[in-house]
Write a structure and sequence with these properties.
The chain has three domains: 208 residues, FAD/NAD(P)-binding domain (3-Layer(bba) Sandwich), CATH 3.50.50; 92 residues, D-Amino Acid Oxidase, Chain A, domain 2; 55 residues, no CATH class. It contains 13 helices and 21 strands. The chain is globular, with a radius of gyration of 22 Å. It starts with a strand and ends in a 13-residue tail after the last helix. The longest helix is centred in the last third of the chain and has 25 residues. The strands form five sheets. The chain has a seven-stranded mixed sheet. A five-stranded parallel sheet has the order 7-2-1-12-20. Strand 15 and strand 16 form a beta hairpin. By secondary structure, it is of the alpha+beta class. Helix 9 packs antiparallel against helix 10 and helix 11 crosses helix 12. Bound molecules: flavin-adenine dinucleotide (FAD).
Length: 444
């Protein structure tokens, strides 16, 4: 039995790992030549990539020892709120133990460790080439057409497969490929945020940030924010961000001046007077994009879409890799119960239903936060307004109350469900913060 995974980004690598439990051969098709540096196919890799704790624990489950391995290769690990100075609404969250571990590394390092682990699996092989389309019909996909040196060449290069998984990221052409087969295509949901990033690496010196390993300044009402994390090579990876077209400049004086406007001074203190190690790189992200495959009445058997190709989140909330990891676990669960015949026609609907449940949680959290900015156009239901009013109070309470800060961070890391913030004992601390004043926790 052969599975083919399109794309060797984070989602593709995780899917490949899971597929080895059910398929004797897993071919990963990637158009980039893969080395440990920045590569063309993932331009976002030049920007700060925070790994939420939910993502980290899934990676540990699939690749035991993952955290220790990236740390051994130079990543910094820290208790999430103790090692990080986290500013929200202009004030710092109360530092406290959260039970969450932050892994601070560049995206190329995270990806290199995963890739080495996956390509070492005996079932997996890499095919360097670009995907050109699907083979099959509206009822079943039977393989892919790819460029590059595959086995059977007959009017194009073809790779037969029992299951094809598209993990080619946000720019996925799966809707077009499905249309070419005469199959229905998914509706798309977007939220216009017109987010701009500018990022660079800076040298680190001992004692900066009081030896904290990162600082996050969440976007405030002006839509500006940023982060700096201590990555391998003892460097700061600094990203500045601005929403709704207010994008950070990529010249050093402009970059530094933008940093000075953030709601906390820490990032400016790191970059003022410092020389970046290389260029300041921009990235424009117009809109989160969710493709509603779960709403299609029919999808061909033998074909699934995963990762950013399914849902590309606003990067401000660092959800993409963690949700891709959760989807890999969903895939594992679905394959464990799939019918032995190939392809199982019930698999896509089962996978998309379960995947949309994990996507939903993250999508609601991030879209809700985006809609808190009055400049973002979108439908604000009564529920959205109520939730945002409550979350704003939770933010304020979290500045003084470590119990609220801890709860807030655990939800944001996709470890606890959003409903955790509504538990009566916590709701009291959020809505009546004075009653919590005497009940602080030890701080870190
Ligand atoms: C600016 C920015 C910052 C981000 N920051 C964070 C963050 O802090 N934390 C976080 O968790 N997530 C972050 N993300 C999201 C994160 O990058 C993705 O969610 C995550 O990498 C999963 O993506 P993926 O594997 O589905 O797609 P990608 O990482 O985009 O990988 C797709 C792969 O498919 C390959 N490919 C594409 N087309 C073809 C083709 N036709 N043929 C062959 N191969 C092809 C590409 O070369 C690439 O290797 C950020 C995103 C952006 C844009």
């Amino acid at each position: 039995m052969r599975a083919v995974v399109l794309g060797a980004g984070i989602a593709g690598l995780l899917a490949a790992r899971v597929l080895t439990e059910n398929y004797s051969e897993v071919v990963v098709v990637e158009r980039d030549s893969l080395d440990d540096g920045w590569r063309r196919g993932v331009p976002q890799a030049r920007h700060l990539h925070g790994l939420l704790d939910r993502g980290r624990t899934v990676l540990e489950e699939l690749f035991p020892g993952f955290t220790a391995e990236v740390a051994a290769r130079g990543a910094t690990t820290a208790e999430a709120l103790v090692g990080t100075r986290w500013y929200l609404g202009g004030a710092r969250l109360a530092p406290t133990s959260t039970g969450l571990t932050s892994v601070m590394a560049t995206r190329p390092l995270l990806e290199a460790v995963l890739r080495e682990r996956v390509l070492a699996l005996p079932e997996v092989r890499l095919h360097t080439g670009s995907v050109r389309g699907l083979i099959g019909d509206a009822h079943a996909v039977r393989g892919v057409r790819v460029s590059g040196d595959a086995e059977s060449v007959s009017g194009g290069t073809e790779l037969a497969a029992d299951l094809v998984i598209d993990a080619t990221g946000r720019g996925s052409r799966a809707p077009q490929y499905l249309a070419d087969l005469g199959a229905p295509t998914p509706a798309e949901e977007r939220l216009e945020v017109d987010l701009g990033y500018a990022s660079a690496l800076f040298p680190r010196t001992e004692g900066q940030l009081d030896n904290h390993s990162s600082v996050i300044v969440s976007t405030g009402p002006d839509g500006r924010g940023g982060g700096a994390i201590r990555v391998e090579g003892d460097r700061w990876h600094v990203t500045l961000a601005g929403m709704l077209g207010d994008h950070p400049p990529t010249d050093l004086p402009g970059f530094t001046a933008f940093a000075a406007t953030l709601a906390a001074p820490d990032i400016h203190a790191l970059v003022a007077g410092a020389e970046p190690l290389g260029e300041i790189t921009p990235h424009r992200f117009r809109s989160p994009l969710r493709r509603r495959y779960e709403r299609l009445r029919t999808v061909p058997a033998g074909f699934l879409v995963i990762g950013d190709a399914l849902c590309s989140f606003n990067p401000l909330y660092a959800q993409g890799m963690a949700v891709a990891a959760q989807q890999a676990l969903v895939l594992r669960g679905c394959l464990a119960t799939a019918a032995r015949r190939s392809p199982d026609p019930a698999l896509p609907a089962r996978f998309y239903a379960a995947a949309s449940a994990v996507v939903d949680v993250a999508w609601r959290l991030s879209a809700g936060s985006d809609l808190a900015n009055p400049g973002v156009r979108g439908q604000r239901t009564a529920r959205t307004r109520l939730t945002n009013a409550y979350v704003a109070r939770a933010h304020r309470a979290a500045h003084a109350d470590p119990v609220v800060a801890r709860a807030f961070l655990r939800v944001g890391n996709l470890v606890d469900p959003p409903a955790a913030l509504l538990r009566p004992a916590l709701a009291r601390r959020i809505l009546l913060p004075r009653s919590a004043n005497g009940a602080s926790e030890p701080t870190g």
